[in-house]
Amino acid sequence: MIKSITKPLRLLLYYSIIVVGLILLTVNPALAQPAPGSIHILEIRGVINPPLQNYVKRAITNAELQNASLIIIKMDTPGGLDTSMREISQLILSSPVPVAVYIYPPGSRAASAGLFLLTAAHFAAMAPGTNTGAASPVALGGEAEDASMTKAVEDAAAFIRSMAIQRGRNADWVERAVREAVSITEREALELNVIDIIADNIDDLINQLDGKTIRTVTGEITLDVVNAPRHEESMNFAENFLHVISDPNIAFILLSVGSIGIIAELYNPGALFPGIFGAISLILAFFSLGNLPTNWAGVALLALGIGLFIAELYIEGFGPLGVGALAAFFLGGLMLFQPFRPAPPAWPDLSVNPWLVGSATAIMGSFMFLVMAQLIRSRKAPIMTGYEHYIGQIVTVLRDLDPEGRVWFQGQNWYARVQPLDVVVRAGQKVRIIGIESLTLITEPLEENLHTQEK
Fold it and tell me: How would you write the pLDDT of the chain (455 residues) with one tens digit per residue?
């Protein structure tokens, strides 16, 4: 029965219906079916992670099912997760549809994981003013052991060298990019046979590819694409949303907001909205952490900070627990994506902006101060026994009194009943307390809020 659902839950229900509808619209395959022989164009932007990996897999699968003549991947990336990079590389290597990886627009880069994808492509292309390389493993968060670093370098060098040999490109240079972290411009890449084409734009790229013959897993293919229709294979709503939140700064914000929401709900049970919003934020944060190279010591420090803050609620004043909570929260944010092991070459510079960590810690401290101040005031208030002092006070209805419902009184959510029983008082209106039975407030409507209904 809708009337029994609280307002925050109704809002959550409405928003969920809208989101589900948008997702269904974006994933409906019947909305835009490309013609056979089309050129499918997709885009890799930002960190390469599992949501982006799933997008590329879906796009390549669709291109194969729809008999596409060519796949063009426009790319600008600082790198990404090693597992996602390898999965996408394997998809490109095994694609029956020729794949052109194009570093575009001007000013873009294919660093770290991007170089691996560029090397895996049937056709490697770059726009003027772009660069690629810098694929060397690095040790983040401390000095890595020589043996671990050597293993990481050898594994990465062997993988990229094998792909370069398969594509007939300069295996020595791409291996050097892994071992020495060197980078080159598009002109140098063409001269060194690291790429095949320099193209000013998509039209120029397609014109240069037309008539070229390439060997795929299904045999040799000669491209006839100059007049082929084009199909933009964009991320759907779900893929784009999950890709956006798989960002270190977004993950930290979700953790911070979720923690504050849960704490607010614990401090004020029954408010519902902070708890619901906090729980959703934390679930999204955990998804984001699962798509990032997370240092769980940083997560443990954040959890310790939240635990100390909750413990501080039961101690008068802002003492050592509060200071410890802020220190743990700040250090946890800085350490969140700083693993103490050699990073694979596909690893970009992932970290939470220190200014964001400091701002979030300051907000957490301000929130703690406000809560502590309110608790101290309430603890210093005179203690009154009995319920006589409740009589005559005006309270706000949270859920319709018909005749029972809920009201907001003394910062808490109370059960209440209105008298006489044939009266209905709507949410948001005021009532007067005239008595108390157990933990249920007995109320009467104010004259201006009086509504009657047949029973």
Answer: 333 344 444 554 554 555 455 444 444 444 457 888 899 999 999 888 888 999 999 999 999 999 999 999 999 998 888 889 999 999 999 999 999 999 999 999 998 889 999 999 999 999 999 999 886 655 444 444 556 667 778 888 999 999 999 999 999 999 999 888 899 999 999 999 999 999 999 999 999 999 999 999 999 999 999 999 999 998 888 888 888 888 888 888 888 888 888 877 777 766 677 778 888 888 888 888 777 777 778 888 888 888 887 777 666 555 677 788 888 888 888 887 765 555 555 555 567 888 888 888 888 778 777 766 666 565 555 545 556 677 888 888 888 888 888 888 877 778 889 888 778 888 888 898 888 887 788 898 887 665 544 44
How far, in Å, CA of 258 to CA of 275, rounded? 8
pTM over 0.85: no
The CA–CA distances, whole Å, from 382 to 225, 247, 378, 389 equal: 84, 49, 9, 12
- 124 DSSP β-pair partners: 101
Distance CA 94, CA 217 (A): 6
Please list the residue range(s) of the chain that carry CATH number 3.90.226.10. 31-236
Task: Please tell me whether residue 97 adopts helix, strand or coil conformation.
Answer: coil
CATH superfamily for 31-236 is 2-enoyl-CoA Hydratase; Chain A, domain 1 (3.90.226.10)
Strand pairing of 394-399 and 404-409? antiparallel
